[in-house]
Design a protein that fits this description.
By secondary structure, the protein is an alpha/beta fold. It has helices spanning about 5-15, 55-60, 90, 105-115, 135-145, 155-170, 205-220, 235-245, 260-265, 275-280, and strands spanning about 30, 35, 45, 60-70, 75-85, 125-130, 150-155, 175-180, 195-200, 220-230, 250-255, 280-285. This is Calmodulin-lysine N-methyltransferase.
Length: about 290
């Protein structure tokens, strides 16, 4: 990753993570690389203090933001911590570090999707892969569904240290843990999960095979993986072809939420919007 790209990532991070009151983040950001940064599904509010009585360095060294999703009369909230320091080049160049930067649209739409489909997680063991600094979708499942257990993971140690602090500042409805999980690591034993969720983890060509192997190793025989990612040229289709070559079954779902679909249609004529790189597509992956 070049120095220029690191600067772009840092700039995007600080723009995307600067909440103002309880307003949704702007759908477009003026930065060196123009991009749609949000579908305005998440609202943010900076908390005046850490949302816990357990005051530790891990807690106080973070700014705490309340992220909320509103669906009709239902409101889903999570307290998310953001570290009060500049990211180093080492942080940004670690294993699969894209989640270190901001809440990407795929993570935003996956979080919205799981909140609207909580029943599907009832009694299930759930695994999130590549959850980044917040593991937002997985933690919404852990807090509001009737899942049996939720394990949120990322390959970057810095991300999981942040998630560990987040776990201390929220209450959950099931057993909830976080862990470093690097897709390419071989293990003697793989616990099987009923549902795997993942947002925007197909970006790097050289990591895609390891990601597919990870899904195969951890997904139960009758389970389902929910993979959210934009088309991004041939990236998504390559994932599907490689997955099917390994015996997986993939179903591409374009319209998985009427609200998200309508927001897409509203943005389609925006000169800054590129459907190929901005619109997250849902891939349902099964073993049969």
């Amino acid at each position: 990753m070049t120095y220029i790209l690191i600067r772009k990532f840092l700039k995007l991070f600080f723009i995307a993570q600067s909440p103002n009151g309880s307003q949704p983040s702007s759908p477009t950001d003026e930065i060196s690389v123009r991009r749609i940064s949000s579908f305005m599904l998440l609202q943010t509010r900076e908390l005046p203090a850490a949302p816990t009585d357990r005051i530790t360095d891990q807690i106080t060294k973070r700014t705490w933001i309340e992220y909320s999703i509103v669906n009709n009369l239902d409101i889903f909230k999570l307290n998310i911590g953001h570290r009060n320091r500049t990211f180093s080049a080492e942080d940004l160049m670690g294993f699969n570090n894209t989640g270190n930067v901001c809440i990407w649209p795929s993570e935003e739409t996956l979080s919205y999707y799981v909140c609207l489909n909580l029943d599907m997680f009832a009694g299930k063991n759930v695994l999130e892969l590549g959850g980044g600094m917040s593991c937002l979708a997985g933690l919404f499942v852990a807090k509001y569904s009737s899942a049996k257990s939720v394990l949120v993971t990322d390959g970057n140690k810095t991300s999981i240290e942040n998630v560990a602090a987040i776990l201390q500042c929220n209450s959950f409805a099931c057993k909830t843990d976080c862990s470093v999980l690097k897709w390419g690591e071989q293990r003697d034993y793989y616990k099987e999960y009923d549902i795997i969720i993942s947002a925007d983890c197909l970006f790097f060509d050289d990591a895609r095979v390891d990601f597919i192997n990870c899904v195969i190793n951890y997904l139960s025989e009758k389970g389902m993986a929910l993979v959210m990612a934009p088309q991004r040229g041939a990236t998504l289709d390559s994932f599907i072809l490689q997955s099917e070559a390994r015996g997986l079954v993939c179903k591409k779902v374009m319209n998985y939420s009427q609200v998200v679909w309508e927001k897409r249609l509203a943005l389609i004529d925006n000169c800054e919007y590129n459907d190929n790189i901005h619109y997250p597509i849902l891939i349902e992956v099964t073993k049969a």
